[in-house]
Design the sequence.
């Protein structure tokens, strides 16, 4: 018989802590220098890369916040992301409901068909997609981006909803059917109210994906007034070349909302990752 | 109103259990057609029109010489494929994409595993670390690319400052045909290892505590537990991670554009930036279509291999 060891082992050993700290420094230093860089003069970046800035004059930040570009590009991104989230939630949850609760011929086939989207990279179809959007008159419009992003999001969202709907007690649906409650009413009054956590997960996932997307807006949008923030920041960087303090200030202001959102919503992101990826 | 009645009757009848088969079938016939016609088409139409058809179109375009305007009539057979395969930058793009795959598998995943093993316990300081490591993954690729463009900047960046401090003259890494690739690989590792770490942590946390505890009571050493119990038990998480690492690496685009834009002299293109640079920007749809088809085939091969491996993992 083995004897239980007396001393309680620390969950993380000293060697592990040491390497974790090195990795943490590796992760944090770029963020740290970016955040401080906005306050430094260009020459200061060279001579004082890690230290605190000589003055905390927020002149660049104020200038950016007062300029036309910052709020309009963030607003555009927000509009597109919200549109994508709402539409994708509705479309994908309806489909997943039908696939999970209604028995019909070809149901497995449709599920398999939609899941193809998980295996194949969206980037491969980007050029014909551009032609299609042009022919449908969807170029240079936020709606065009929203609709295409919803189409791209369908596979993963249906998978997450489907996994969740399958777990709902069957008796609920059966009992409702006994009462002659139609599927549409079951969907609206029973399934949706029960699946708020998965709606949050899918919503956060789609929001982040849309907020960060670059390639699609890049090929779709032409007019600067409609630019999303990744396009805006690329253009800003192109315009100011190596005026790094100004670019770093713009970067800091652009990523702050995303970081705040992430800290608030991270548990949904993680449950989406693990629920969709590990189980699926 | 209807909802309330439905809900209250559920409460009373939920315990009754199964519904008879005949009832169910009759119900099906009456009630399922309208909802199906309402629920299925939106997703199916969007998915077909904007995801599936473009890939079919890409295959069609790849056999024609077309600039995107007017009728598609100029059939050229496999000429576009020949053009792609003999393009002097395509080989570089493929090589770079393969390097990304290799670095993802050989550097990023082991690092992620190391961190996951240390961070799979629950405690406050561990949660902070975990959030920190996951942060780069949530950041937009464009923002991450610009942050690192600054870090690498030859005049004002961190790298020359560090080099100056230790007395080494650092090259302009993003402008150097050799250094640009390692520099990008470092950014990729920084950006994505937290994602794989989270997948591994989820796997590790699903291992029943009793298994680890029993091994510990039997005097099994910590690293033996990791090697012989933990890692084998999260095989499926590893398989998924590998799959994401490979398909993600094959599609890498957003990070490259702000960092090096494929330069210097087209030495840091990946397959997708190559497609963008030489297909999309020049509106060469046949050429771009051929690149897309080749990328698609690569992804199909990965997916099929993945299914086989996953099947084997589930079997054992």
Sequence:
């Amino acid at each position: 018989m083995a004897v239980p060891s007396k001393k309680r082992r620390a969950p993380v050993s000293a060697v592990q802590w040491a390497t974790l700290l090195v990795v943490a420094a590796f992760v944090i230093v770029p963020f740290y220098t970016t955040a401080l860089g906005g306050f430094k003069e260009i020459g200061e970046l060279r001579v004082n890369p890690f230290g605190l800035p000589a003055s905390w004059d927020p002149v660049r930040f104020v200038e950016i916040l007062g300029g036309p570009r910052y709020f309009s590009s963030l607003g555009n991104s927000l509009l597109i992301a919200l549109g994508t989230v709402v539409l994708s939630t509705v479309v994908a949850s309806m489909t997943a409901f039908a696939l999970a609760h209604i028995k019909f011929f070809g149901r497995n086939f449709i599920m398999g068909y939609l899941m193809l989207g998980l295996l194949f990279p969206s980037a491969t179809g980007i050029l014909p997609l551009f032609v299609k959007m042009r022919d449908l008159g969807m170029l240079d419009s936020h709606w065009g981006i929203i609709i295409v992003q919803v189409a791209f999001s369908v596979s993963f969202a249906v998978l997450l909803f489907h996994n969740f709907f399958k777990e709902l007690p069957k008796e609920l649906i059966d009992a409702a059917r006994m009462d002659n409650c139609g599927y549409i009413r079951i969907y609206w009054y029973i399934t949706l109210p029960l699946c708020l956590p998965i709606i949050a997960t899918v919503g956060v996932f789609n929001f982040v994906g849309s907020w960060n997307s670059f390639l699609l807006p890049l090929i779709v949008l032409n007019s600067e007034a409609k630019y999303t923030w990744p396009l805006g920041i690329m253009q800003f960087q192109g315009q100011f070349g190596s005026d790094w303090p100004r670019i770093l200030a713009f970067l800091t202001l652009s990523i702050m909302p995303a970081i705040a959102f992430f800290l608030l919503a991270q548990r949904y992101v993680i449950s989406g990752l693990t629920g969709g990826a590990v189980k699926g | 109103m209807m909802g309330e009645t439905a809900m209250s009757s559920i409460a009373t009848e939920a315990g009754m259990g199964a519904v008879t088969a005949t009832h169910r079938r009759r119900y099906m016939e009456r009630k399922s057609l309208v909802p199906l016609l309402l629920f299925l088409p939106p997703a199916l139409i969007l998915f077909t029109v904007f995801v599936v058809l473009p890939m079919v179109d890409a295959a069609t375009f790849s056999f024609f010489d077309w600039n995107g305007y007017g009728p598609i009539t100029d059939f050229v057979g496999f000429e576009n494929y020949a053009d792609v395969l003999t393009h002097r930058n395509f080989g570089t793009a493929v090589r770079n994409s393969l390097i990304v795959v290799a670095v993802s598998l050989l550097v990023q995943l082991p690092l992620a595993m190391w961190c996951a093993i240390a961070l799979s316990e629950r405690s406050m300081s561990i949660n902070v670390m975990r959030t920190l490591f996951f942060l780069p993954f949530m950041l937009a690729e464009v923002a991450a690319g610009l942050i690192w463009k600054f870090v690498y900047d030859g005049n004002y960046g961190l790298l020359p400052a560090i080099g100056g401090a230790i007395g080494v003259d650092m090259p302009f890494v993003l402008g150097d045909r050799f250094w640009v690739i390692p520099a990008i690989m470092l950014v990729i590792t920084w950006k994505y290892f937290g994602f794989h770490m989270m997948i591994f942590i989820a796997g590790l946390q699903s291992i029943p505590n009793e298994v680890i505890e029993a091994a510990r009571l039997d005097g099994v050493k910590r690293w033996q537990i990791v090697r012989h119990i933990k890692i084998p038990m999260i095989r499926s998480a590893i398989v998924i991670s590998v799959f994401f690492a490979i398909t993600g690496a094959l599609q890498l685009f957003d990070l490259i554009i702000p960092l090096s834009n494929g330069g210097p002299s087209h030495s840091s293109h990946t397959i997708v930036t190559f497609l963008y640079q030489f297909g999309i920007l020049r509106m060469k749809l046949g050429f771009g279509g051929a690149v897309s088809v080749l990328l698609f085939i690569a992804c199909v091969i990965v997916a099929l291999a993945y299914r086989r491996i996953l099947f084997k993992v589930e079997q054992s």
In short: Confidence is low (pLDDT under 50) at residues 1-19 of chain B. Chain B is about 75% helix and 0% strand. The two ends of chain B are 52 Å apart (CA to CA).
